[in-house]
């Protein structure tokens, strides 16, 4: 298949420009938080779009070793090999609910988030998580053999697997170089570094389960699935909330509740994301309706369909074959769609998880506007169709 054929118009930055159907619009305030996030310029501060001079290179990566003789360096390769592919993916936008949620949570705990100068720590933590998230998507697309990300060919297709895998890892570590500048309290900084390390290990354990299952090595049950998603999907928003807990000096009991909220919300997000990948017209336009079937992904819908219903053997065979044959992909697609109860059960589970997440956080969130926004954002996560 000519993958460029399917490329749709690039959607940049703002969630409201994405192709949501009218009933499932993201909350209006999400755009305002996205704009604040962009105005803070944190992404470019952590990762410039282009390195212009050798002094700029040394200033951006102060720990970079250079030989005493070096009066010049290959800046073009840094720009073309890392900064361009990274910003290409970042500038495609996405819903950006993770950084927005970080800002709203800080607001709920008393920060005036519109004051960018006074909240550099909060913006840094949202930027850190957004960069790591983009790095994880870049490598995830390579591991899943995906074709499109945010309406354009995946980074590894556009720039090569070598560039994509290196840039992805770079995005995990480079933002940490600047932590001293933004998190000035030593104790908070030490806590955040520990949290970062723990959650990055969790992220890769979660991803490992996902990979082994799409390879057909192990057939997961619903319990396995939940263990996978609280590590693969809930991890980065949880990392943000736990780090905010350190920066804002929240009580341990509050941080525990916040983590529990994000565990459930992240799981609901992933279940809904996978339902969308199989069902939504908008998704089919932006990516490819067979994407998850070709990957062999064991989403909750698929786990349900493999547990009960017709054509289990056929579905499993096609999932494990990673075929590009459209007739076969359509066969599996149809067989999964015939099992409406597999979708209904997953949908019910996502809704219950959002309710559960709300029960966890309701008592710890101070009453007010920010709390209402967090509730609205949680609802959007299960009602959206892209
Ligand atoms: C350590 C790594 C690489 C972690 C990946 C984290 C992650 C949530 C990837 C996207 O999930 P997905 O594959 O379920 O979503 P999509 O269908 O958008 O690719």
Automatic annotation (TrEMBL):
Keyword Transferase applies: yes
Coiled-coil intervals, chain numbering: 312-339
Entry-linked SUPFAM superfamilies: Terpenoid synthases
UniProt cross-references to InterPro entries, sorted A to Z: Isoprenoid_synthase_dom_sf, Polyprenyl_synt, Polyprenyl_synt_CS
Claim: Protein biosynthesis is one of the keywords in the record: no
GO molecular function, one term: prenyltransferase activity
Family according to the record: Belongs to the FPP/GGPP synthase family.
The name this protein goes by in its record: Polyprenyl synthetase
